From TrEMBL:
InterPro entries: Cys_alpha_HP_mot_SF, Ribosomal_mS37_met. SUPFAM superfamilies: Cysteine alpha-hairpin motif. GO terms for biological process: mitochondrial translation. It comes from Acanthaster planci (Crown-of-thorns starfish). One of its GO terms (cellular component) is nucleoplasm. One of its GO terms (molecular function) is RNA binding. It comes from the Eukaryota. PANTHER family: CHCHD1 (PTHR31278), SMALL RIBOSOMAL SUBUNIT PROTEIN MS37 (PTHR31278:SF2). This is Coiled-coil-helix-coiled-coil-helix domain-containing protein 1-like. PROSITE patterns: CHCH.
């Protein structure tokens, strides 16, 4: 197409009314969407792999792998204890850092926004 033809098409082209953006008021809601924290690295992986290697070596016989089973269960108990302590510390607010969604919701509900 020639330059003149493009000018004619562009000049006569129908431009619909554009959407006008309206700014909404800034206000906080009284609650936050529930978000789960992503878990960190899995615990007791080495103990589990040692236990499975022992089972494979002894044809899945528990009596030959009692020491490995005991070590794995001990590791699981320690990890569970650490998780519970961390959960209690986060709930009480002793651990600073990123606020959980439940903590943010409780704070926002204590100080509601005027409507």
């Amino acid at each position: 197409m020639s330059k003149r033809m493009n000018e004619i098409i562009l000049r006569n082209h129908y431009w619909p009314n554009r959407f006008e953006f309206r700014q909404r008021e800034f206000k906080l809601r009284d609650k936050v969407a529930l978000r789960k924290n992503r878990p960190g690295a899995a615990e007791c992986i080495t103990e589990m792999s040692v236990l499975m290697a022992c089972w494979k070596k002894h044809d899945y016989n528990d009596t030959d792998c009692t020491e490995e089973i005991r070590l794995f269960e001990k590791c699981c108990m320690e990890a569970k204890k650490v998780r519970q302590e961390t959960k209690a510390a986060v709930k009480s607010g002793k651990i600073a850092g990123k606020m959980t969604s439940q903590q943010a919701t409780s704070l926002l509900q204590q100080f509601p926004q005027p409507r």
